[in-house]
Amino acid sequence: MSEPQAEAAEPEAELPAPGRKRRWLLVLAGLLVLALGSAWFARERIANRIIAGQLEDLGLPGRYEIESIGTQRQVLKNIVIGNPARPDLVVPRAVVEFEPRLGVPTLNKVTLEGARLFGSYREGKLSFGALDTVIFAKREGPGGLPDLNLVLIDGRARIDSDFGPIGAKAQGQGNLRSGFAGVMAVAGPKLDISGCAARNALAFGKVTTASARARFAGPLRISGLSCPDRQIALGQTTVQLDALLGEAFESIDGRYELAAARPVLPGLRAAGLNGDGDFTFKAGDLIASHDLTASGLDLGAASLASLRIDGAVRSRDRLTRFEGEGAISGRELRTGKGLGAALADLEQTGEGTLLAPLAQQLRRALAREERGSELGGRYSLRQTGGITQIVVPVAELTGGSGTRLVGLSRFGLS
Which one, of 401, 411, 393, lies nearest residue 366 by Cα? Predict the structure, then answer.
């Protein structure tokens, strides 16, 4: 009899029937679709929490509506920042676009349509209400404009200032920190600056950014400027500006070219005034250099074909006081009826004294040497309120032949 056979192998594990496997796959797929569907339908609620949390972190009181939410594109509408009764920012529609970087969605571009910004400029301080905590916040890393691609469509702003209301309109696109390019117009229909009234002021030109600073290049035009207390006035005036805004919006500096009609200054009138210079406006005060030439001057008792004023001026106490100094040079001095009559009277009243021949000699010399005559000297200026003081430490009048006609030392006007 043979040995007993080896025990039979254990039976194999029972495999699910093909129909049963398909049912499990369908259940898993259904659960996945349900989870994704729940997340999709809850996307607005999730986005709401994220946006509300961001506004809260920034300390911005605001409200908004969600138009659409996607993985790479979100559209918000009716955005209001600040007090709804007097908002600081209103944006009818904003499109926020993201792009994946290393698997993480990163903000790529923001498009603002019809944004309206409201602010103020009081006692040398610029403010945009609730937005100040974001715009002027001290934060780690580089300051200035943010590293953000912006598309601005029909953006407008209103600034209520100590000088009067100022309105602006702008549009453009590019990286705000470096690479933005657009156009802007700024208007001030009626501005009153330290007793000077400027009418119909309008600036328009190109706006660009580089190294976190914004630059404006274009003309500023006013229909007229009047400073009654200072005896200063300008007719139609154009100032070509190239201005650079400080990183924290605390200053403006740049260069200007001036062309003004019918200028009036203390003691003189002119047909025109042209020139250029540099300027800095910070903390409510101005420092400016100038190289200006006035043409067709009427000095009352005399006239000049031209007068060049090369120097600098600075303001103090937020444009309430001015100080300046520089050099003056004039061409073609011609005596008017007033000066001729005054010298003739001096001859008569001084008859029999040394004064009469001196007055006669000066009158004849001026008449003979007018053509090609030159005036040169220096000046200093102080102005507070309606009081203007001009001191001429030294001045000299040279005739056309090169003869020194008149020399003045420490001459003052007020």
Answer: 401
Instruction: Enter the tokens of residue 143.
Output: 């300051």
By three-state DSSP, how is residue 16 classified? coil
Which backbone phi and psi does 57 adopt, to 5 degrees?
A: -65, -35
Tens digit of each residue's pLDDT (9 = 90 or more) over 69-118: 887 888 889 999 989 999 999 999 999 888 877 777 777 899 999 999 99
Query: What are the residue ranges of helices labelled H in 127-167?
Result: 132-135
> What are the structure tokens assigned to 157, written together?
């702003």
Query: What pairs with residue 166 in β-bridges?
Result: 159
The answer to whether residues 102 and 117 touch, using CB atoms and an 8 Å cutoff, is no
User: Does the structure show a pLDDT above 80 at 379?
Assistant: yes
- Please, are residues 244 and 252 in contact by the beta-carbon 8 Å criterion? yes
**What are the backbone dihedrals phi and psi of residue 93, each rounded to the nearest 5 degrees, phi first?**
-155, 135
Q: Identify the DSSP state of 2.
A: P
Q: Is 43 exposed, middle or buried (0-12, 13-18, 19+ CB in 10 A)?
A: middle
Task: Compare 49 and 209 and report the one with higher pLDDT.
Answer: 209
pLDDT in tens, 239-278: 999 999 988 788 999 999 999 999 998 778 999 999 999 9
Structure-token pair, residue 240: 């070509």
In this prediction, residue 407 has a pLDDT band, given cuts at 50, 70 and 90, of confident
Give me the pLDDT at residue 368, please.
83
412 vs 3: CA distance, rounded Å: 143
pLDDT over threshold 50, residue 35 = no
Instruction: Give the count of beta carbons closer than 10 Å to the beta carbon of residue 388.
Output: 19
How far apart, in Å, are the Cα atoms of 53 and each of 56, 57, 62, 200, 346? 5, 6, 11, 44, 86
How long a stretch of residues is the chain? 414
Q: Which one-letter amino acid corresponds to residue 175?
A: N
216: nearest Cα among 249, 258, 192, 259:
249
DSSP 47-75: HHHHHHHHHHHHT--EEEEEEEE-SSEEE
Q: What is the rounded distance in angstroms from the CA atom of residue 362 to the CA atom of residue 369?
A: 10
Query: What are the helix and strand counts (H, E) for the chain?
Result: 5, 24
